[in-house]
TrEMBL record:
This is Helix-turn-helix transcriptional regulator. PANTHER family: HTH-TYPE DNA-BINDING TRANSCRIPTIONAL ACTIVATOR EUTR (PTHR46796:SF12), HTH-TYPE TRANSCRIPTIONAL ACTIVATOR RHAS-RELATED (PTHR46796). The keyword DNA-binding applies. Keywords: DNA-binding, Transcription, Transcription regulation. The keyword NAD does not apply. InterPro entries: AraC_XylS_family_regulators (IPR050204), Homeodomain-like_sf (IPR009057), HTH-like (IPR037923), HTH_AraC (IPR018060). It comes from the Bacteria. GO terms for molecular function: DNA-binding transcription factor activity; sequence-specific DNA binding.
Length: 279
Protein backbone atom coordinates (compact mmCIF):
# COMPACT_ATOMS: atom_id res chain seq x y z
CA UNK A 1 0.00 0.00 0.00
CA UNK A 2 1.39 3.40 -0.99
CA UNK A 3 0.96 5.96 1.77
CA UNK A 4 1.54 9.69 1.45
CA UNK A 5 3.06 11.46 4.45
CA UNK A 6 2.12 15.08 5.16
CA UNK A 7 3.57 17.32 7.89
CA UNK A 8 1.62 20.06 9.66
CA UNK A 9 3.73 22.33 11.88
CA UNK A 10 3.02 25.55 13.77
CA UNK A 11 -0.49 26.97 13.57
CA UNK A 12 -3.51 24.99 12.39
CA UNK A 13 -5.45 27.11 9.89
CA UNK A 14 -7.46 26.89 6.71
CA UNK A 15 -10.10 24.62 5.31
CA UNK A 16 -9.12 21.57 7.16
CA UNK A 17 -7.44 18.35 7.84
CA UNK A 18 -8.76 15.68 5.56
CA UNK A 19 -10.80 17.55 2.94
CA UNK A 20 -8.54 17.29 -0.08
CA UNK A 21 -6.27 14.43 0.85
CA UNK A 22 -5.23 11.38 -1.19
CA UNK A 23 -6.94 8.04 -0.44
CA UNK A 24 -4.12 6.76 1.82
CA UNK A 25 -2.51 9.44 3.93
CA UNK A 26 -0.85 9.90 7.30
CA UNK A 27 -0.71 13.48 8.56
CA UNK A 28 2.02 14.10 11.14
CA UNK A 29 1.27 17.19 13.22
CA UNK A 30 3.09 19.37 15.74
CA UNK A 31 0.82 22.35 16.38
CA UNK A 32 0.89 25.15 18.93
CA UNK A 33 -2.57 26.62 18.31
CA UNK A 34 -5.34 27.09 15.79
CA UNK A 35 -8.52 25.46 14.55
CA UNK A 36 -9.77 24.00 11.28
CA UNK A 37 -12.53 21.99 9.74
CA UNK A 38 -12.12 18.24 9.37
CA UNK A 39 -13.63 17.11 6.11
CA UNK A 40 -15.76 13.99 5.80
CA UNK A 41 -14.13 10.87 4.33
CA UNK A 42 -15.60 7.74 2.80
CA UNK A 43 -14.03 5.58 5.51
CA UNK A 44 -13.00 5.76 9.15
CA UNK A 45 -10.27 8.14 10.23
CA UNK A 46 -8.01 7.68 13.25
CA UNK A 47 -6.75 10.72 15.16
CA UNK A 48 -3.91 9.88 17.58
CA UNK A 49 -2.49 12.41 20.07
CA UNK A 50 1.03 11.84 21.41
CA UNK A 51 1.38 15.06 23.45
CA UNK A 52 -0.91 17.90 24.45
CA UNK A 53 -4.64 17.84 23.76
CA UNK A 54 -6.85 18.26 20.69
CA UNK A 55 -10.57 19.07 20.76
CA UNK A 56 -12.76 17.52 18.07
CA UNK A 57 -16.36 18.61 17.51
CA UNK A 58 -18.86 16.41 15.71
CA UNK A 59 -22.64 16.66 15.74
CA UNK A 60 -22.67 19.38 18.37
CA UNK A 61 -20.55 17.40 20.86
CA UNK A 62 -16.93 17.96 21.85
CA UNK A 63 -14.51 15.02 22.05
CA UNK A 64 -11.29 15.89 23.91
CA UNK A 65 -8.39 13.67 22.86
CA UNK A 66 -5.48 13.79 25.31
CA UNK A 67 -1.97 12.39 25.07
CA UNK A 68 -1.97 8.61 24.68
CA UNK A 69 -5.50 8.49 23.23
CA UNK A 70 -6.95 8.17 19.75
CA UNK A 71 -10.34 8.88 18.21
CA UNK A 72 -12.04 6.74 15.55
CA UNK A 73 -14.30 8.93 13.40
CA UNK A 74 -16.98 7.14 11.32
CA UNK A 75 -17.26 7.64 7.54
CA UNK A 76 -19.08 10.71 6.26
CA UNK A 77 -18.72 12.72 9.48
CA UNK A 78 -17.37 16.26 9.12
CA UNK A 79 -16.46 18.45 12.06
CA UNK A 80 -13.86 20.76 13.56
CA UNK A 81 -10.58 20.38 15.41
CA UNK A 82 -9.00 22.87 17.80
CA UNK A 83 -5.67 22.75 19.59
CA UNK A 84 -6.26 23.08 23.33
CA UNK A 85 -3.87 25.99 23.95
CA UNK A 86 -3.79 25.53 27.73
CA UNK A 87 -2.10 22.14 27.29
CA UNK A 88 0.77 23.50 25.19
CA UNK A 89 1.74 22.26 21.76
CA UNK A 90 -0.08 19.18 20.50
CA UNK A 91 1.65 16.51 18.46
CA UNK A 92 0.19 13.42 16.89
CA UNK A 93 -1.01 12.00 13.61
CA UNK A 94 -4.16 11.46 11.60
CA UNK A 95 -4.63 8.32 9.52
CA UNK A 96 -6.94 8.26 6.52
CA UNK A 97 -6.57 4.83 4.92
CA UNK A 98 -8.82 2.88 2.59
CA UNK A 99 -8.12 -0.21 4.69
CA UNK A 100 -10.21 1.36 7.46
CA UNK A 101 -13.35 0.21 5.66
CA UNK A 102 -15.03 -2.22 8.05
CA UNK A 103 -17.77 -4.82 7.87
CA UNK A 104 -18.85 -4.03 11.44
CA UNK A 105 -22.21 -2.39 12.05
CA UNK A 106 -22.10 1.39 11.44
CA UNK A 107 -21.23 3.60 14.38
CA UNK A 108 -23.30 6.65 15.21
CA UNK A 109 -20.57 8.76 16.83
CA UNK A 110 -16.79 8.95 17.20
CA UNK A 111 -15.25 6.54 19.71
CA UNK A 112 -12.35 7.28 22.03
CA UNK A 113 -9.67 4.67 22.77
CA UNK A 114 -6.65 4.53 25.05
CA UNK A 115 -3.55 3.61 23.08
CA UNK A 116 -2.16 1.46 25.90
CA UNK A 117 -5.23 -0.82 25.92
CA UNK A 118 -5.11 -2.29 22.41
CA UNK A 119 -2.64 -3.72 19.92
CA UNK A 120 -3.58 -1.08 17.37
CA UNK A 121 -3.16 1.73 19.90
CA UNK A 122 0.28 0.51 20.93
CA UNK A 123 1.22 0.34 17.25
CA UNK A 124 0.07 3.92 16.71
CA UNK A 125 2.15 5.14 19.65
CA UNK A 126 5.25 3.21 18.60
CA UNK A 127 5.00 4.25 14.94
CA UNK A 128 4.52 7.90 15.83
CA UNK A 129 7.66 7.85 17.97
CA UNK A 130 9.62 6.25 15.17
CA UNK A 131 8.43 8.71 12.54
CA UNK A 132 8.80 11.75 14.83
CA UNK A 133 12.20 11.05 16.37
CA UNK A 134 13.55 7.66 15.37
CA UNK A 135 16.23 6.80 12.81
CA UNK A 136 13.93 4.49 10.80
CA UNK A 137 12.93 5.64 7.28
CA UNK A 138 9.56 7.33 7.69
CA UNK A 139 8.05 5.92 4.51
CA UNK A 140 8.82 2.36 5.59
CA UNK A 141 7.37 2.93 9.07
CA UNK A 142 4.24 4.44 7.51
CA UNK A 143 3.76 1.41 5.24
CA UNK A 144 4.19 -0.98 8.15
CA UNK A 145 1.69 1.06 10.18
CA UNK A 146 -0.85 0.96 7.36
CA UNK A 147 -0.47 -2.81 7.04
CA UNK A 148 -0.80 -3.30 10.79
CA UNK A 149 -3.84 -1.04 10.93
CA UNK A 150 -5.48 -3.15 8.24
CA UNK A 151 -4.96 -6.26 10.38
CA UNK A 152 -6.18 -4.87 13.70
CA UNK A 153 -8.81 -2.23 12.98
CA UNK A 154 -11.73 -4.57 12.33
CA UNK A 155 -11.06 -6.41 15.60
CA UNK A 156 -11.00 -3.12 17.50
CA UNK A 157 -14.33 -2.05 16.01
CA UNK A 158 -15.99 -5.39 16.75
CA UNK A 159 -14.78 -5.17 20.36
CA UNK A 160 -16.13 -1.62 20.70
CA UNK A 161 -19.52 -2.64 19.32
CA UNK A 162 -19.60 -5.48 21.82
CA UNK A 163 -18.90 -3.04 24.63
CA UNK A 164 -21.68 -0.73 23.44
CA UNK A 165 -24.19 -3.57 23.27
CA UNK A 166 -23.25 -4.68 26.81
CA UNK A 167 -24.28 -1.35 28.32
CA UNK A 168 -27.75 -1.10 29.80
CA UNK A 169 -28.58 2.45 28.66
CA UNK A 170 -31.44 2.57 26.16
CA UNK A 171 -30.44 5.70 24.24
CA UNK A 172 -27.47 5.31 21.84
CA UNK A 173 -26.08 8.73 22.78
CA UNK A 174 -26.01 7.66 26.44
CA UNK A 175 -24.20 4.40 25.63
CA UNK A 176 -21.57 6.20 23.56
CA UNK A 177 -20.95 8.75 26.31
CA UNK A 178 -20.75 6.06 29.00
CA UNK A 179 -18.32 3.98 26.92
CA UNK A 180 -16.11 7.07 26.52
CA UNK A 181 -16.00 7.46 30.31
CA UNK A 182 -15.31 3.75 30.81
CA UNK A 183 -12.45 4.05 28.34
CA UNK A 184 -10.97 6.86 30.46
CA UNK A 185 -11.36 4.70 33.58
CA UNK A 186 -9.66 1.77 31.89
CA UNK A 187 -6.80 3.98 30.70
CA UNK A 188 -6.36 5.35 34.22
CA UNK A 189 -5.99 1.83 35.58
CA UNK A 190 -3.33 1.07 32.96
CA UNK A 191 -1.46 4.30 33.67
CA UNK A 192 -1.40 3.95 37.46
CA UNK A 193 0.37 0.62 37.79
CA UNK A 194 2.49 1.18 40.90
CA UNK A 195 -0.24 0.94 43.56
CA UNK A 196 -3.84 -0.13 44.10
CA UNK A 197 -6.41 2.60 43.44
CA UNK A 198 -9.75 3.17 45.14
CA UNK A 199 -13.00 3.01 43.18
CA UNK A 200 -13.71 6.66 43.94
CA UNK A 201 -10.36 7.72 42.52
CA UNK A 202 -11.02 5.94 39.23
CA UNK A 203 -14.58 7.29 39.05
CA UNK A 204 -13.34 10.85 39.55
CA UNK A 205 -10.72 10.45 36.82
CA UNK A 206 -13.36 9.22 34.38
CA UNK A 207 -16.13 11.62 35.36
CA UNK A 208 -18.64 8.89 36.21
CA UNK A 209 -20.40 7.84 39.40
CA UNK A 210 -19.01 4.93 41.41
CA UNK A 211 -22.29 3.06 40.92
CA UNK A 212 -22.22 3.30 37.12
CA UNK A 213 -18.49 2.57 37.02
CA UNK A 214 -18.78 -0.61 39.06
CA UNK A 215 -21.77 -1.94 37.14
CA UNK A 216 -20.81 -0.90 33.61
CA UNK A 217 -17.05 -1.59 33.79
CA UNK A 218 -17.69 -5.24 34.52
CA UNK A 219 -20.32 -5.45 31.77
CA UNK A 220 -17.81 -4.11 29.23
CA UNK A 221 -14.49 -5.57 30.32
CA UNK A 222 -15.50 -8.71 32.18
CA UNK A 223 -14.08 -7.83 35.61
CA UNK A 224 -14.72 -5.25 38.34
CA UNK A 225 -12.27 -2.31 38.21
CA UNK A 226 -10.26 -3.46 41.25
CA UNK A 227 -9.83 -7.01 39.92
CA UNK A 228 -8.96 -5.72 36.44
CA UNK A 229 -6.35 -3.38 37.89
CA UNK A 230 -4.79 -6.07 40.08
CA UNK A 231 -4.53 -8.32 37.03
CA UNK A 232 -2.73 -5.59 35.05
CA UNK A 233 -0.20 -5.07 37.83
CA UNK A 234 0.24 -8.80 38.36
CA UNK A 235 0.92 -9.45 34.67
CA UNK A 236 3.39 -6.56 34.49
CA UNK A 237 5.25 -7.84 37.56
CA UNK A 238 5.25 -11.37 36.17
CA UNK A 239 6.75 -10.17 32.86
CA UNK A 240 9.47 -8.20 34.65
CA UNK A 241 10.52 -11.29 36.63
CA UNK A 242 10.38 -13.61 33.61
CA UNK A 243 12.63 -11.27 31.60
CA UNK A 244 15.05 -11.10 34.56
CA UNK A 245 14.60 -7.33 34.77
CA UNK A 246 13.62 -7.50 38.46
CA UNK A 247 13.64 -9.85 41.39
CA UNK A 248 10.32 -10.87 42.93
CA UNK A 249 10.75 -8.31 45.69
CA UNK A 250 11.64 -5.53 43.26
CA UNK A 251 8.67 -6.36 41.03
CA UNK A 252 6.35 -6.48 44.04
CA UNK A 253 7.38 -3.01 45.18
CA UNK A 254 7.31 -1.56 41.65
CA UNK A 255 3.78 -2.78 40.92
CA UNK A 256 2.11 -2.14 44.24
CA UNK A 257 2.24 -5.44 46.11
CA UNK A 258 3.11 -5.44 49.81
CA UNK A 259 6.22 -7.59 49.43
CA UNK A 260 7.72 -10.45 47.46
CA UNK A 261 5.73 -13.06 49.36
CA UNK A 262 2.45 -11.26 48.65
CA UNK A 263 3.29 -11.05 44.95
CA UNK A 264 4.32 -14.73 44.81
CA UNK A 265 1.06 -15.76 46.50
CA UNK A 266 -1.03 -13.70 44.07
CA UNK A 267 0.96 -15.09 41.13
CA UNK A 268 0.39 -18.67 42.23
CA UNK A 269 -3.35 -18.07 42.63
CA UNK A 270 -3.63 -16.46 39.18
CA UNK A 271 -1.26 -18.64 37.15
CA UNK A 272 -0.84 -21.82 39.19
CA UNK A 273 2.93 -21.47 39.62
CA UNK A 274 5.42 -19.29 41.44
CA UNK A 275 7.04 -16.46 39.42
CA UNK A 276 10.28 -17.58 37.76
CA UNK A 277 12.83 -16.21 35.34
CA UNK A 278 12.76 -17.51 31.78
CA UNK A 279 16.02 -16.01 30.51
Amino acid sequence: MTVQLIDLVGTLTGGGMGQTRPPNVIVMSNLSRGAAETGARGHFMLKYVAAGKELYRYGGKTFPVAAGQFLAVPPGMAGEVEIAHQSGAASGMCLGLKCLDTQSAPMEAPLLFAASCSTLGQMLARSHRQMATGPSPRARVAEHLAAGTARHFETLMEEALGHLSALAASRPVTRYDLLRKLTLARAYLHDVDDRPVALGEVAAAAGVSQFHLLRSFRACFGLPPSTYHRRIRLEAARAAVERAEMTCTQAALRYGFADGASFSHAHRRAFGTAPTRKV
